Amino acid sequence: MKSLSVKRPKASLGSARSRIDALDDAILDLLAQRADIAKEVARLKRAAEVRMFHDPEREQQVLTRVVKRGAGKFPEGALRAVFREVMSGCLAIEEPLRVAYLGPEGTFTQTAARKLFGLQARYHECATIEGVFEAVESEDATYGVVPFENSTEGAVSMTSDALLEGRLLIRQEYVLPVAQCLLSRAKSLSDITTVYSHPQALGQCRLWLAKHLPRAQVVQTTSTAAAAREAHADDRAAAIGADIASEIHDVPILRANVHDRRENATRFVVVAREDAPLSGDDRTTLVFGVADKKGALRRVLTDFEDAGVNLTRIESRPSRKKAWHYVFLVDVEGHRQGKPLRNAIAAAKKHVDFVKIIGSYPRAQSRKR
């Protein structure tokens, strides 16, 4: 006896799209439910008199969980972007987040801020790094986002000085891969007579400029976005900046990836009135000064080594209190509440003029070794 085979109806493009529409409707219903719970969370926080509605550590836990669960099912970068915006939208329902950043619009700092806090935060662009710090100190903003160091050009001295002299702490760090572009209305490189950009961006492209535009005048600007405005106004000028600046200021990308080092990246920090709680995988930034005596710095570094604390970065800065007197800004592994770092600081206090904690915060994924 022959078995009967049941023919399945051929799937049509229309039916596949209908199933997608049904799934989209279900996602929207789930987003509405999540928004309702966000409102409930807001009520509970107000009842508990919680000062800080935003919880970066909780957000990182959510992102880590969904990326792990979605591994192999959906691209990781897209998962992070989608849930970053979902959380940004829900936080806007709880209490709109105010974020100051080093502007103007179209800078890498703006890109980093949006990667950190999503599109629904209320952004306030500041003309200077000092302006970002003032916005947070005066409580006009909850957080500030500023560049801290670049993998090619090193420390951003204005940020270092603002951290040394101010009261704000580092709450979070974020490492953004930086792809510099040459923006110009010129038809070819030979037509360019002037190149504008921020000193950091110019430094990251020094070799490329020397090779491809050796005769062009190089002019420093306050930001890469300001450079793009100059290039927009002059057909024989060019700017070095982000691809987003090309879109915002309507200046075509004449050459992409003009930075000298392929692994070019900038480390941004989020400054706030409080640093982060212990996460178990942290970094701490601190500053100390030593007497101008033989072996003074070595003794402090030995204190950290004896306590089992690894120094990942050290930078000297003028103390601004005495000519030719310097202080040392360092990054170390561990949290200020952890026993190894507490022991290291206690031992170092015997050999330093002062020590100041500038913040403990979770290590960025791309900075882990």
Give a written overview of the molecule.
The protein has helices spanning 13-47, 56-69, 76-94, 108-117, 129-137, 157-165, 199-204, 206-212, 224-233, 243-249, 296-306, 339-348; strands spanning 98-102, 122-126, 143-150, 154-155, 169-177, 181-184, 194-197, 217-220, 237-241, 253-255, 265-272, 282-289, 311-318, 326-333, 354-362. By secondary structure, it is an alpha/beta fold. Strand 3 and strand 4 form a beta hairpin. The mean pLDDT is 88.
Quick tags:
about 375 residues, about 40% helix, alpha/beta, 12 helices, six-stranded mixed β-sheet, five-stranded mixed β-sheet
Summarize, please.
With 369 residues, this protein is an alpha/beta fold. The chain has 12 helices and 15 strands.
Q: What distance separates the N and C termini?
A: 68 Å
Average pLDDT value?
Answer: 88
Overall number of strands: 15
Element-by-element helix/strand order: HHHEHEHEEHEEEHHEHEHEEEHEEHE
Rg computed from alpha carbons, rounded to a whole number of angstroms: 25 Å
Secondary-structure class: alpha/beta
Shape call: globular
Helix content: 25-40%
Unreliable parts: none
Main sheet record: 6 strands, mixed
- Helix count equals 12
Beta content: 15-25%
Secondary-structure topology with pairs:
Blueprint: H1 13-47, H2 56-69, H3 76-94, E1 98-102, H4 108-117, E2 122-126, H5 129-137, E3 143-150, E4 154-155, H6 157-165, E5 169-177, E6 181-184, E7 194-197, H7 199-204, H8 206-212, E8 217-220, H9 224-233, E9 237-241, H10 243-249, E10 253-255, E11 265-272, E12 282-289, H11 296-306, E13 311-318, E14 326-333, H12 339-348, E15 354-362
Parallel strand pairs: 1-2, 1-3, 7-8, 7-9
Antiparallel strand pairs: 3-4, 3-11, 5-11, 6-9, 6-10, 12-14, 12-15, 13-14
Helix pairs in contact: 1-3, 2-3, 11-12
